[in-house]
Amino acid sequence: MDKIILITGATSGFGKAIAEKFAAAGWNCIVTGRRADRLNALVDQLQKQYQVQATSLVFDVQDRQAVFTAINSLPEAWKNIDILVNNAGLALGRDSFENANLDDWDTMIDTNVKGMMYVTKAVLPVMTARKKGHIINMGSVAAKLVYKEGNGYCASKHAVDALSKAMRIDLLPHRIKVTAIHPGAAETEFSMVRFKGDETKAKQVYDGFTPLYAEDIADITLYCASLPENVCINELTVSSISQADGIYIHK
Question: What is the pLDDT of the chain when averaged over all its residues?
Answer without folding.
Answer: 96
